[in-house]
Amino acid sequence: MSVYTELNSSDFTAILADYNLGQLHDFQGIAAGIENSNYFIITDSGRYVLTIFERMQAEELPYFMRLMKHLATNGLSCPDVMARHDGSLLFETNGKQGCIVSCLSGKTLDALNMAQLRSSGESLARLHLAGADFDEHRSNPTGPEWLAGKIAEVVEKTASIYGRDAAELLTDELTSQRALDWSSLPRGVIHGDLFVDNILFDGDQASGIIDFYYAHDAAFAMDIAITLNAQAVLLGDHDQQRMDAFLSGYEKLRPLQQQEREALPLLLRLGALRFWVSRLYDAIYPRGGAMTQTKDPEEYRRKLMFHRRKA
């Protein structure tokens, strides 16, 4: 992710002193994403990712650590959290908490083909099944109250920067979504942020899912909608076929219920609205950082319009 907290070799050496990972050989900041500070580190025992948490509350972090261990134990290819000498899973540096996790095989891709979309669908279904008996819970950090609050904060500046039509679209879609209730849909642990930079591939086969720091309890169909928007919808001529490919892979392991199928078109709109609002907020109220990346809000406005036109 983007690097907001800069570490030097002495910082890494001090952190590694509490692990059984050997001496530091090299490190490199990872300039992608917008939430945490991530580094690749290489030690005597291998290659790892070191993450420093920039925004999350300290009391939330043990949930993510234990979730990743649970998912890995139950058949999902995802990072394993390294334990310190005392068995703890988190370290502290510069007044912030962090963790070290294993590196997975494969690489991220800029865009997925049909075979890769099918494999990604299988991976998401495997995640939902692997988390079925995870007994910890986390509420949705970008739920209805968050959404309404963020729209209130950005709507006027959206009108002045992006135009009155964009501001009206925000409030109109929020009104439509407020009338809906998804509480009866099948639910459990979801990833919540499965963009192409959070899934690894060896060829056409998905080899691992990373970055679980948006994970929470929600409808599985919401996770599907978020992932379809992120991976399958390119605003081109073949988007429906791309979505169908992803869903065919997902349903190999977990067939959708009829109510999930019926909800999906509106959840695609909700997912597009959430990420549009998040990107608008980051563009209007940018944070400083040594290696930061602000993503284009316009992409998700266009995706929301795409789904509204299909309604």
* CATH superfamily membership of the largest domain: Aminoglycoside phosphotransferase (APH), C-terminal lobe
- Succession of helices and strands: HEEEHEEHHHEEEEHHHH
DSSP summary: helix tally: 9
Structural class estimated from helices and strands: alpha+beta
Tally the structural domains: 2
Annotated CATH architecture of the largest domain: Alpha-Beta Complex
For the largest beta-sheet, the strand count, sense and barrel status come to:
5 strands, antiparallel
Tell me, briefly, the overall form. Answer: globular
What is the multimeric organization of the chains shown? Answer: single chain
Give the neighbour order of strands across the main sheet: 1-2-3-5-4
What is the straight-line distance between the termini? 35 Å
| Average pLDDT taken over every residue | 94
| Extended strand count | 9
CATH topology of the largest domain: Aminoglycoside 3'-phosphotransferase, Chain: A, domain 2
Per CATH, the class of the largest domain reads Alpha Beta
Low-confidence stretches: none
- Binned, the helix content reads 40-55%
- Amount of beta strand: 15-25%
